[in-house]
Design brief:
- The protein is an alpha/beta fold and 214 residues long.
- It has a single domain, classed as Rossmann fold, CATH 3.40.50.300.
- It is built from seven helices and nine strands; from the N terminus they run βαββαββαβαβαβαβα.
- Strands 4-2-6-1-7-8-9 form a seven-stranded parallel β-sheet, sandwiched between helices.
- Strand 8, helix 6 and strand 9 form a beta-alpha-beta unit.
- Helix 1 packs across helix 2, helix 1 crosses helix 7 and helix 5 runs parallel beside helix 6.
- It is globular, with a radius of gyration of 16 Å.
- It starts with a strand and ends in an 11-residue tail after the last helix.
Length: 214
């Protein structure tokens, strides 16, 4: 399989929509191992709705937490402790198929009182797609996230921007961050499989995602 981590510079930046786009466009398998705050509709359900893909393209969460908080605190309120040993990559993804892994929140959110999400990424050693807003503040948040990933030796595939075009901000991030601009997902009038695949084909290059099996 080809594991690919989709993470963000912050929460609520469109990471789930980017993950849905990649799952649909790359015919991938989607997995969100930690869901914090579902309100009855998990991100897995949302991605199923957005992509229209069958159940075979999805893997179940390992933790579904009630409160929309940092995973460590959401788990504590549910009388749980997130254990990294429970978060090994699924081994039933067919060879050659992308496993699109959506992280919970940003790169440095705590999973428990001793472990950050980036420590889990270090274990997996899978390429990362960093989702970043194009709005004000994105340069600082993006460069901090890229620096944290690189300091731990985690491979970064590149940055996927979300929002209106901001050419100078995008250029500044990829130049200072010494990474690749994968593309920009604009705000879409319709959110469905057709619109997501069309956006991918128009704004991204399939070749950038031709990673080797891991």
């Amino acid at each position: 399989m080809k594991p690919l981590i989709v993470t963000g510079t912050d929460t609520g930046i469109g990471k789930t929509v980017v993950a849905a786009m990649l799952t649909a466009a790359l015919d991938g398998v989607y997995w969100k191992p930690i869901q914090a705050g579902s309100h009855g509709v998990t991100d897995t359900v949302r991605v199923k709705q957005l992509t229209g893909l069958p159940d075979s393209h999805f893997r179940s969460e390992r933790y579904v937490l009630r409160n929309p908080l940092s995973p460590h605190r959401a788990a504590e309120l549910d009388n749980l402790t997130i254990d990294l040993d429970d978060l090994a990559l699924p081994q039933d993804v067919p060879p050659g198929r992308h496993l699109i892994i959506e992280g919970a929140g940003g790169v440095l959110v705590p999973l428990n009182r001793n472990t950050l999400q980036i420590d889990l990424f270090t274990r997996w050693q899978a390429p990362v797609v960093l989702c970043a807003r194009t709005s004000l503040g994105t340069i600082n948040h993006s460069l901090l996230s890229l620096e944290a990933l690189k300091r731990r030796g985690i491979p970064v595939l590149g940055v996927a921007f979300v929002g209106e075009p901001m050419p100078d901000s995008e250029r500044t991030i990829v130049e200072f961050g010494e990474t690749k601009r994968l593309g920009r997902l604009p705000m879409l009038r319709e959110l469905d499989s057709h619109a997501l695949v069309e956006a991918f084909d128009k704004h991204f290059s399939r070749q950038d995602f031709e990673i080797v099996d891991g």
